[in-house]
Hints:
By secondary structure, the protein is an alpha+beta fold. It is 32% helix and 20% strand. Residues 1-73 have low confidence and may be disordered.
Amino acid sequence: MFHSLxxxxxxxxxxxxxxxxxxxxxxxSTSGGAGAGTARAHARPAVxxxxxxxxxxxxxxxxxxxSTRSAPGAxxxxxxxxxxxxxxxKILVAxxxxxxxxxxRDTRNRDNCVMIPGCTRVWPLETTRGxxxxxxxxxxxxxxxxxxxxxxxxxxxxxxxxTYVSDTSAGSTDYIGVSQFGGTWxxxxxxxxxxx
Length: 196
């Protein structure tokens, strides 16, 4: 029978047989590897999930917060400074109505609190993006900024301004004149004078 087939037919038939045989051999020899590859593919999502969970826990723990969180008092836009009537008189307040403070260890347009360990955690800088805006009772000519690290701190009449971390109510005067970090923390009048 084979003598009646043309050489080209024999060639094509033999080639198909070789191809089929090779495919079977490859399938048998790699079946274990394919299973391992599938196992590895299934393992990747689990590893990625564990890594993401670890990263989230790392962030929640507070580690590395200096690289992921804004500086204390970091502002999203130009900060409006206003004057508010309080039991201590008319004093400067932040946009949320909280009292603004000066630090007696600072010199004109120079923040010395940042040089004292822990100081800015208790007395966060009042910061701004862009030139601060003068609200009611504030002299625009007295408003300015100084660069402290990567943020712009608001100053008034040369006094760098701060808030107090435990101040939770607008117009509170409970912390005016507090002594901490080697100095006192007076409020500031619209005239630029300090109030203890």
